[in-house]
Amino acid sequence: MVLDLLGEAVAANPVLTAILVVMIALLLGAYLFVRRILVSAKEGYRAGQSER
User: Which residue windows are transmembrane per the record (predicted)?
Assistant: First the structure.
């Protein structure tokens, strides 16, 4: 039932669906990018502290 509604919505608005998919992919990519930067910074900080 829910899949039928979703299928109808995608069929009725394919451009909007594509835009939403691209936006979600960009948000996920940005999240992973920022997370990687913060984790690397944290590891670098710890490595610098242990060298003293």
Answer: 15-34
The residue whose two tokens read 């997370």 is 35
CB atoms within 10 A of CB 10: 14
Reference 20, options 10, 29, 30; nearest CA is 10
pTM: 0.69
CA dihedral 16, 22, 26, 27 (to 10 degrees): 40
Give the relative orientation of helices 14-50 and 2-12 as an angle to the nearest 10 degrees: 100
Q: What is the pLDDT of residues 9-50, one digit of tens each?
A: 888 989 999 999 999 999 999 999 999 999 999 999 999 988
